[in-house]
Amino acid sequence: MLAMFFWAFVVGGCICVIGQLLFDVAKLTPGHTMSLLVVAGAILEGFNLYEPLVDFAGAGATIPITSFGNALVHGAMQEAEQHGVIGVITGMFEVTSAGISSAIIFAFIGALIFKPKS
């Protein structure tokens, strides 16, 4: 059990270190860095490399932003097998809709509760 927590921490930390290096060394903006991490997760899923990482690291691989790219490609590939080309588009939205919806709802609730600074 401790090994599972350890590897989740190490893998998640490595993903965060990569993002921080993109900020500091490459001088990328947060938007560019997040986009690169999403694309990296999508590419890893495209080559069937992200699922073994999730099996190994658990939350260390599913919590960072790279898992969003993984979810997009995974949903698109899964639905494309069943519904063809139209499944590529619907699959992306089907898999990620809960996460996107919850982010919007919680951001709205946070904006109602807290006073934003100008």
Automatic annotation (TrEMBL):
Transferase as UniProt keyword: no
Question: From which residue to which does any coiled coil extend?
Answer: none
- Respond yes or no to whether keyword Nucleotide-binding is given for this record: no
Q: Which InterPro entries match?
A: Spore_V_AE, SpoVA
Q: Which residues cross the membrane?
A: 6-26, 85-114
Keywords linked to the UniProt accession: Membrane, Transmembrane, Transmembrane helix
On the tree of life, the source organism's domain of life is Bacteria
Q: Which protein is depicted? A: Stage V sporulation protein AEB
